[in-house]
Every structure is written in C-alpha cells, then in structure tokens.
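sry for the spam today, last one i promise. struct tokens for design, 378 residues
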C-alpha cells in the first residue's frame, strides 16, 4: 500500500532506518522518541557496518545493508559513511590458521577477504607499526559516525515534507481503531496511523511488554572508550584475534583449536572481550569492548578492561595511545532465537514490534527496516 501514515516509536538506529525506508517507499512518517536525543547503544557504539564476521545466515542481509548504508551516505553526507574496510590483526600462528580457514571458504570473495603479511598490513594502514604476524583484510566493512548519523538522517527526512520528529515524547498507549491505530503520548497528543512500528531498543519493559508480554530477547552490556585525536590516519577499522571468538562467521575447527590452545588473558576472559577500534572523523579512536549478560547490570564501569584495551591497541600501533577523554557503558537488545536475525512481533495487524539485533543494529539496521516495510507493503 503506497501513501500510508506510519508512526515509528523509537529514535535509535532501528527506528530511524524504519522511518527512512518508509519515506523512501512513499509513506508519511511520524517518529516519536522518549528522550531529547536517542542515547542507547546506537549512539554509544563503533558505527561499524561489519560484514566480515557475519554468519552465512546473515551474509546476504549484511551485504544488502552495506549497500543501503552507502546509498544513505551519498544522500546524507552528515552520516560520515566511509568504505574503510577492516583489518583483523593476527599475533599468533593459531590466529593465522583461523584466517586461512576463512579464506578457503566459498564465501570469502563475497566478504572481500584477503590475507596480508605484516609488511602488507603496514603499507595498507601505515599507523600500524606494532607487533603482529599479519592481518585478515575485509574490504566490505565500513564505518558511519554513530553519534551524529541519526540527527543527520532526520534533517534529511524533514525536507521530504512527509516526516515529523517528536522528541521528549513518551508513549502511553497504542490502540487499534476501526480505521487503523492510534498512538497516545504522555503529553496528551494523539497520532493516528495506518500502521505503528515499535523499535524499543533495550527497553524490554513498559510499552513493549504491554504489547507482547515476554519476548525472546536479552540485554547485553558493553564498555567502551574514546581517545583524543591520534595525530595520524588509521585508514581501516581494526580488530584483534580475540574478535574471532565473538562472530559466527569465523566458527569452525580452526577456531576451536585456537580456543583450546590459546586462552584469553584473565581480564579478557572475565569480561568476554575483543578489540574493535575505529577512528572518528575528529581523529580520536573509539575502542572496545566487553560483553556482560547477567542482570542486574552495575551502574559503574570496571577499569581493568580499559587497561587491557590500551595495552592491546598500543601493541598493534607500536606507540602509546593519546589520552582517554571519555569512558562509557551501553546496553543493547539481543534476540535469543539462533535462527532469527531480529525479533518481530505483531500483537495486532496494525502494530509491529522490532527489536533484538544484538550488536548488529548499526550493521543491519537499513536491511532489517527494508524487510519490515516489505512485509507491510505486501
């Protein structure tokens, strides 16, 4: 159906990409965000569009999402899209063996993989003057500026004349009507629509629970940090060999051998750590991260993971890091169904709840939204 009125509840990456896709399909959109500005995992993450480690189930969707991000970046330069690629730096023979096994798979070319020796790594990314044996390069990975991408997209959508954004606006009720569905906000406003898309992020209580009750999702907490400007370009995103442990695209016998023969450090194992590192447009580095699954989450952050990350990045760069200017924690929603990329539930034909992409929200957001709108338009 062309020209629907769609109300999107949630201003994070899923909410905003659903709004973008609905506008692109000719609909009218009202987007509601309970905060003054979205401040969940979307804006606290790396901004990585991470094709390299996605499972075979996710690969086509990841590649489609990367294509969509490139289109969004061309239309909205403010999102800061860069086809930077990534290098996973290999420091042990067992990590090299995982990279070699991945390169032997039929989908290696689709992922844009190639194995670089240490000198080739330095030629490709001269800032990496540290200690490593080589690197697994993926030219399909990309980066957007997570803290500014969503406002930039909203500014672009407002120029369509078919989009309105209401921040600081929480939702009291979603009520099907004879002609569609009505959203009532806590300011006393009413928003009538043909369809409502609810993207609650990691807020599993409140409206999402009222609509669907228990959902097969959990929350995951992570810690990250930001440095002052590095003073030189880091031309790709970088990861360490520990990242192999957390992405299903690297699963296999070589990874099991790595797990058995190469335990993580005590800190990295305790906090379920990997290194991911991205340079922001202002020159600083966003560095992380950890994984915590057991609630209730603490309100403070632990210093040991930051010490570990500083040591790893310094070893790979071959230099001391710039000063750390901020540290933070974030929480995202992860679907527990191993066969599902995201959780969608519909308590009514006029309402769709979309949540639980895990750490894949930035990577897969545009493609997840495309799927949802295709279902509505069918």
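last one done:
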């Amino acid at each position: 159906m062309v020209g629907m009125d769609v109300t999107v509840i949630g201003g994070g990456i899923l909410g905003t990409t659903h709004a973008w896709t609905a506008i692109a399909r000719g609909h009218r959109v009202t987007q509601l965000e309970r905060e003054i500005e979205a401040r969940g995992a979307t804006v606290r993450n790396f901004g990585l569009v991470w094709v390299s480690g996605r499972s075979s189930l996710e690969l086509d969707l990841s590649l489609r999402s990367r294509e969509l991000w490139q289109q969004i970046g061309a239309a909205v330069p403010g999102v800061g899209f860069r086809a930077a690629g990534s290098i996973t730096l290999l420091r042990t023979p067992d990590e090299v063996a995982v990279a070699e096994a991945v390169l032997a798979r039929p989908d290696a070319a689709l992922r844009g993989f190639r194995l670089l020796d240490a000198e080739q790594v330095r030629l490709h990314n001269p800032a990496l003057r540290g200690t490593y044996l080589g690197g697994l390069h993926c030219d399909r990975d990309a980066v957007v500026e997570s803290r500014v991408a969503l406002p930039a997209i909203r500014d672009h959508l407002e120029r369509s004349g078919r989009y309105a954004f209401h921040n600081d606006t929480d939702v009291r009720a979603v009520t099907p009507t004879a002609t569609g569905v009505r959203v009532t906000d806590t300011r006393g406003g009413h928003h009538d629509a043909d369809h409502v898309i609810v993207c609650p992020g990691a807020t599993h209580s409140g409206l999402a629970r009222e609509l669907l009750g228990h959902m097969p999702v959990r929350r995951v907490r992570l810690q990250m940090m930001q440095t002052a400007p590095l003073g030189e370009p880091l031309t790709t995103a970088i990861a360490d060999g520990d990242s192999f442990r957390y992405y299903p695209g690297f699963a296999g016998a070589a990874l099991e051998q790595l797990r058995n023969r190469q335990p993580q450090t005590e800190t990295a194992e305790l906090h379920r750590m990997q290194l991911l590192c991205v340079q922001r447009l202002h020159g600083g580095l966003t560095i992380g991260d950890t994984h915590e699954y057991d609630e209730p989450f603490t309100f403070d952050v632990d210093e040991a993971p930051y010490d570990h990350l500083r040591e790893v990045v310094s070893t790979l760069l071959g230099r001391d890091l710039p000063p750390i200017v901020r540290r933070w924690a974030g929480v995202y929603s992860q679907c527990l169904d191993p066969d599902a990329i995201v959780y969608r539930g519909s308590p009514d034909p006029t309402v769709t709840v979309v949540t639980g992409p895990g750490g894949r929200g930035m990577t897969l957001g545009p493609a997840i939204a495309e799927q949802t709108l295709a279902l509505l338009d069918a």
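The radius of gyration is 21 Å. ok im logging off now
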